[in-house]
Amino acid sequence: MNNQQNDQLAKEVVAKMMRDDLFSQWMGIEVLEVREGYSKIKMTLRDEMINGFGITHGGLAFSLADSAFAFACNNRNNLSVALDTSINFTKATKPGDELTAEAKEIHNGRSTGLYHITIINQLGEQVAHFKGTCFRTGKTLV
Length: 142
What we know:
Layout: H1 3-20, H2 22-27, E1 30-35, E2 38-44, H3 58-74, E3 80-89, E4 98-108, E5 112-120, E6 126-136
Antiparallel strand pairs: 1-2, 2-4, 3-6, 4-5, 5-6
């Protein structure tokens, strides 16, 4: 396949994933861009996402990054699952903030892949950095 065909397959895979992903739908995730080994998504934080400290729960930023990670590592139509993930929070977020997560492929191996996801807010400030390693099962999604 050529790059255009690969990118079209990537979009089809992510569209199917979003149709079936009730949690990403609940979070209000919007897919902005998808191409082979890459994804960019966004969401707006809501009042019910606040924690006991008056800021949004860190699990929301993690979940946003995890969805971007999933969309990037699965979009070659090779079912991939998280093997290891980590996140560093660099700035607190609050309801009303619009977060954008950009997942970039660092390594695409036969059985594993490594991805770096950066999350920024509507002001362009970095709020978190996520690293994910996936395991490729060899099964297809579409």
